[in-house]
UniProtKB/TrEMBL annotation:
This is Ribosomal RNA small subunit methyltransferase G. InterPro entries: rRNA_ssu_MeTfrase_G, SAM-dependent_MTases_sf. Specifically methylates the N7 position of guanine in position 527 of 16S rRNA. One of its GO terms (cellular component) is cytosol. Belongs to the methyltransferase superfamily. RNA methyltransferase RsmG family. SUPFAM superfamilies: S-adenosyl-L-methionine-dependent methyltransferases.
Length: 195
């Protein structure tokens, strides 16, 4: 993984505390995963940061509690990358905006459904625990530059999800073993085009 500074580690710890605090009022993460937030959510998100190319614009769809969007934005704070976080739930979008202001992050939070957002021309598109791969490709393709990289963490059924979209899409894919779960991968997709 890319090295992170002590300041970044401190901010990630504070971010974790904010997630837990806000989670008492609005359901940001499942109650069963709060005790393992560092491993289950933050470390999982850090993997995407390590796999992403340098980007001018990163779009995180269905950002929810900021995994991976805010985690990556905190890690990339010293870069010129703009992070666009799309979240339809206005309460969660308020949380994303709060954290963005708190850490002075280069983010834009869009409180809207993904399919209603104007095209974003992103270099990197990510989504974690949002939808089946077919929907992610539909949503992401609309917001991506032609040479964009797509990063989608997926579970043990990822092969079936890939098979289900082969008739509709052409792409190159690299399934990368997750460092946080033996049953999971990160799909790194390039050269996405409709079949």
């Amino acid at each position: 993984m890319k090295n992170v500074s002590h300041e970044t580690l401190d901010q990630l710890k504070e971010f974790q505390e904010q997630v837990l605090r806000w989670n008492q009022r609005i359901n940001l993460i499942g109650r069963t995963t709060t005790s393992a937030i560092a491993e289950r959510h933050i470390q999982d998100s850090l993997q995407l940061y390590a796999l992403a190319p340098s980007a001018a614009r990163w779009c995180d769809m269905g950002s929810g509690a900021g995994f991976p969007g805010l985690v990556v934005a905190i890690c990339a704070k010293q870069t010129p990358t703009e992070f666009i976080l799309i979240e339809a739930d206005r309460r969660k979008a308020a949380f994303l905006s709060h954290i963005s202001r708190m850490f002075d992050l280069n983010t834009r939070v869009i409180a809207e459904r993904i399919e209603r957002v104007d095209k974003l021309n992103a270099d990197v598109v990510s989504a974690r625990a949002l939808a089946p791969l077919g929907m992610l490709l539909d949503y992401g393709h609309r917001h991506a530059k032609p040479d964009a990289t797509f990063l989608f963490p997926k579970g043990a059924s990822y092969r079936a999800e890939l098979d289900a979209v082969r008739d509709d899409w052409r792409f190159s894919v690299e399934p990368i073993q997750s460092k946080t779960s033996d049953d999971s991968v990160i799909l790194k997709i390039k050269d996405l085009a409709r079949a």
